[in-house]
């Protein structure tokens, strides 16, 4: 039996790998898993083929006797929040999150609003591959999917009530929001405006071709957004991915800040905002070791986990002792709201923190150590990527290593992570060093190993 689910749902090039036939069968498997009579909320982002895949999934769900509610266009965290708070038994989201525009995907959400655990994904896969589908008789097929156009309203209200509205409104902030021509445009500008913030948007209209930039909010895609922040004198800019579960911030100087740096200053702020919460943060091995350098002196424990938001969310839920959780890619999890990545909630928290600090965002970021960061990827099959990981382990065998997901090598003056992507045929390389020369040396070492494994000279 093969695997359907990667680190974040089922993904593929739409209408080639992710086809309506797959959507129909997976919908049947999901409906069989949840059980007859379950209430399932379905939504999607703006991607091409989204309506087609959603329709196929809904058809599969209905065939199993599930009650389907169509939440239409909505960010992933908005649908997750509605599932959690509105008494649904589960949800299905049609999205490929940050992946390139030709991709789409299917994500399954449990009743608590978190993606189903890995072991439950395996159950769904077993049903899918064995075709052990429940099919209800015709008399139980009398109802269509019911429109449920309330998801975004419920979500926006939920976010706003978690922050100090009056404080933020008193500051007269001006910000730039870049929702990547996708569903973040339906919620983040509303959140900011209801908090009294003047909003300018870049790539703010919905367009499944993503004409402004690719969905992943990385520095090479955010040049126009960063220039806009500086030119209008905004206090910050925020960029989302395709389903708005990530938030990458741009400071008032136009510098794009990675998610682990943002999470570090937010975690520091949350200790003040929530003194009653445990001083423990959960993050993926892809995050910078800077977080330990800053947070440990404050008595905040850092727990390292595999890359993948599901594992972070589920671990936080199981242990019930988190101040917050996060990934370096801009995914931030705020337990008082929900235990999943949430771009809109992260924006609201940043506005509140900035209002409390009463100084420029660039000054706050400048308090963090500045290292030379390199993130890159090499097209490669998963099997070859795993071979590269083993070679890197051997090369750096005399250093501290974390091997729960690829290999993370840690030294006093650098760290590097080499791992196979869970969603694409790629080898991902991330590293930081105190000097530019050291960073480039480390990248050269890993590239040479990768070329040797791939059979290049």
From TrEMBL:
GO terms for biological process: carbohydrate metabolic process. Pfam families: PGM_PMM_I, PGM_PMM_II, PGM_PMM_III, PGM_PMM_IV. Keywords: Isomerase, Magnesium, Metal-binding, Phosphoprotein. It is an enzyme of class 5 (isomerase). Its EC number is 5.4.2.10. It comes from the Archaea. One of its GO terms (molecular function) is phosphoglucosamine mutase activity. InterPro entries: A-D-PHexomutase_a/b/a-I (IPR005844), A-D-PHexomutase_a/b/a-I/II/III (IPR016055), A-D-PHexomutase_a/b/a-II (IPR005845), A-D-PHexomutase_a/b/a-III (IPR005846), A-D-PHexomutase_C (IPR005843), A-D-PHexomutase_C_sf (IPR036900), A-D-PHexomutase_CS (IPR016066), Alpha-D-phosphohexomutase_SF (IPR005841). Residues 377-446 form the Alpha-D-phosphohexomutase C-terminal domain. Residues 3-134, 154-254, 258-370 form the Alpha-D-phosphohexomutase alpha/beta/alpha domain. Coiled coil: none annotated. Its cofactor is Mg(2+). The keyword Isomerase applies. The keyword Phosphoprotein applies. SUPFAM superfamilies: Phosphoglucomutase, C-terminal domain (SSF55957), Phosphoglucomutase, first 3 domains (SSF53738). Belongs to the phosphohexose mutase family. PANTHER family: PHOSPHOMANNOMUTASE. This is Phosphoglucosamine mutase. The lineage of its organism: Archaea, Thermoproteota, Thermoprotei, Desulfurococcales, Desulfurococcaceae.
